Amino acid sequence: MVGAKIFESEQELSAFLRESEGPFQIQVGLHPSICSDRTGKANLVYNGTGIVEYEPQDQVATIKAGTTFSDIQRVLGQNKQCIPYVVFGPWKQTKIKATSPEDLTFYGVEESFPLSLDLPFGEAVARNTPVAGEAIFGNFRDWVLGLTVVLANGEVVKTGSKVVKNVAGYDLHKLFIGSRHTLGIITEVTFRTTPNELLNTPLNIDRRTGKSSPLRLNKETAADYSHHRHCVQRTRRSDFADAVKAAGEWVIAADYDSCTLYAHVPEELSRFPHDWVQYGDTPDVENPYQRKMMLKMKQKLDPTNKLNPGVFGFL
Amino acid sequence: MVRFCIANNLPYTPRGAGTGLSGGALAALGGVIISTKRLNKILEIDIENRCLRAQAGIANKRISDAVAGQRLHFAPDPSSQSVSTLGGNIAENSGGPHTLKYGVTVQHVLGITLVDTEGEVAELGGPVAGYPGYDLLGLIVGGEGTLGIVTEAWVKLTPLPEAVKTALVSFRYVRDATETVAAIISSGTIPAALEIMDRGILAALKAAFNLQFHPEAEALLLIEVDGGTNQVVNDLEAVERICAENKALEVRVAKDESERQELWKARKKGIGAMGRLAPTIVTHDGVIPRSKLPEMLDTVYEVAAKYNLGVANIFHAGDGNLHPCFYFDDREEGIVDRVIAAGEEVIKYCLELGGSITGEHGVGTEKLDLMPLMFSPENLALQAAVKSVFNDGSLCNPCKVLPNQKSCVEHQKRWRGVAW
């Protein structure tokens, strides 16, 4: 990250983008683990941090996008609320019954897996990595109510709202969730919080315990596993047991509620009808209509391909 | 059909059952109305994977009915669900009384087939939830039929809860009911539904159906909790305790399904019953942070008094989604203008409290003028840019969602003349 431009305010970032041509490799937040495949490549970082607004009674909070999950959970925890975000770490239970956000941590997986408490929330929203426990607790699309985004031309735009139900206009914030800052840089996130009491729901997630985790084995044998990639696969319920079996020893965790598999693989995974797979840092978009519309959207919002070119491969 | 319209430069407007409340089904510039009503088949039911593929014109409730035997349902339940179509629900991102726990339509749509604005058939998503890349499905659901015409969809089927408990709680003041809602939500219990009806609705229900409530009741709160058998018992106890702490006059708990339906009657028949109060009603739709409900309701009553209008409130309190209903006789000269002015004042106050101009009815043609109050010029420009990616012309469903579209402004008075 040597030589990267680091911005802590939207205004500075906006002024810079108005005058600069790019291209920029962008990330939000400074934690080195957040771009496992691309660490060191970022040359533009937004690192605004802190809680902007928090209304415990309304269960809605707004934070600067560089704030990490652990910092957010700490503040929400004072009001017995949280983001029901399941992260990876070592623990031996296979059925999780959680009463506080700390209980939602799986230990024993290296920190660079893109679901970690050190991840800045804005970066997690931009990546939209499928979260474990999604079938019970929802995902970024369910939690995020609104975003502030700095567009490629430097304009600062607020999208969505601060209320839990809203159908006014197009849901622009949904477009930016999972867009990896290719359409704009997420600088502020408004989201709904969850009472800790609701965490008291068993999750049907199996995972490799600390010592047998493929990632732990990699470290201990010190073999060259650099060609392994993190991957997430989601299938139909009817195919999921076969998918877990096919991924074999490389499985990190399997969420039987949302039929999502987390693995660290040396090669391509077996595929199943209607499934989708996301390898490492480059999400593979397979649907031709989606690819066509993503290209059109990118050309419309970032015509000079200034923001994170190449992140989706074809964009 | 879409290609025919393009070739002949004809505007076209998709339409489901036409039950929308914001003018979304109106052919704002004339032209062709493309109805999905005959696309009414269920194409595939996949119980094991808890999903179903149906055509867009199927009535919402028929989906749930088709899988009720397997103890599954399609969770979005707008009040119009016996007639409103899946396609219409997708266009409007419909909610309903159970939104509080189960979410709105977008959370239950896994994939769609659509005819895009060039007349090509395309698919997004499928029976497996979520996919990497831009969330285009999340944009089209709630796009009010301006980003293409949805013809089929894969929807998620949700297990019916093991147990359900419903309570109808009477309060002397509507403020006590709204404060109870705030207390329940902040306690961490999320009921399946939290619905408030005020004295105007009570009067209508008594007049229309002879429903009887506690004699001193000025507000009713309908609470439904669902889930596992033990959890429901615990949740109901917690809720009853909170009601008692907030000055509830009476708590009626349904003992069985028929009593539950009886309690729901107060909510479901409320709007219809208003026909007993006046020949015309206009239902508004605004959202506020739920802790501001008491303050907001006071304002609704003040605004109604200022414009000398009758008002009754029946709404999704748990979501902070208000439905003030002005009732009046539209034959009275000048009254329609007063109703419009009062409605706009209420919606503006929702915005002042940090809310939204619509929670579930959509912008349609009704709320075009209010969009600039909620969104900055930069945001509206971005919305227009995003729309143009899907719909770059002026033929597909013109004059909806975004204000100041070419050739729409001059027609606005005509819609108002027709609608109001």
Estimated share of beta-strand residues of chain B: 15-25%
Give the beta-strand count of chain B. Answer: 18
Query: What strand line-up does the widest sheet of chain A have?
Result: 8-14-16-17-15-18-19
Number of helices of chain B: 15
3D shape of chain A: globular
Mean pLDDT of chain B: 93
| Distance linking N and C termini of chain B | 31 Å
Question: What are the key terms here?
Answer:
heterodimer; A: 315 residues; alpha+beta; 7-stranded antiparallel β-sheet; 23% helix; B: 420 residues; 5-stranded antiparallel β-sheet; 18 strands; 35% helix
Description:
- The complex is a heterodimer of chains A (315) and B (420).
- With 315 residues, chain A is α+β, with helices and mostly antiparallel strands.
- Chain A is 23% helix and 26% strand.
- In chain A, strand 10 and strand 11 form a beta hairpin.
- In chain B, 35% of the residues lie in helices and 22% in strands.
- In chain B, helix 6 crosses helix 8 and helix 11 runs antiparallel to helix 12.
- In chain B, a hairpin with a 5-residue loop joins strand 6 and strand 7.
In short:
The complex is a heterodimer of chains A (315) and B (420). Chain A is of the alpha+beta class.
Topology, element by element:
The complex is a heterodimer of chains A (315) and B (420).
Chain A: E1 5-7, H1 10-19, E2 26-28, E3 44-46, E4 51-55, E5 60-64, H2 69-77, E6 81-82, E7 87-90, E8 95-96, E9 105-107, H3 121-127, H4 134-137, H5 140-143, E10 144-151, E11 156-160, H6 172-176, E12 184-192, E13 194-195, E14 203-207, H7 214-221, E15 229-234, H8 237-247, E16 251-255, E17 260-265, E18 276-279, E19 282-283, H9 288-301
Parallel strand pairs in A: 1-3, 2-3, 7-9
Antiparallel strand pairs in A: 4-5, 5-12, 6-13, 8-14, 10-11, 10-12, 14-16, 15-17, 15-18, 16-17, 18-19
Chain B: H1 2-7, E1 12-15, E2 32-35, E3 42-46, E4 51-55, H2 60-67, E5 72-73, H3 86-92, H4 99-102, E6 109-115, E7 121-125, H5 136-140, E8 149-156, E9 158-159, E10 163-171, H6 174-187, E11 193-198, H7 199-209, E12 219-227, H8 229-245, E13 248-253, H9 257-268, H10 270-273, E14 280-283, E15 286-287, H11 293-306, E16 310-316, E17 321-322, E18 324-328, H12 335-352, H13 371-374, H14 377-390, H15 412-419
Parallel strand pairs in B: 1-2
Antiparallel strand pairs in B: 3-4, 4-8, 5-9, 6-7, 6-8, 10-12, 10-13, 11-12, 11-16, 14-18, 15-17, 16-18
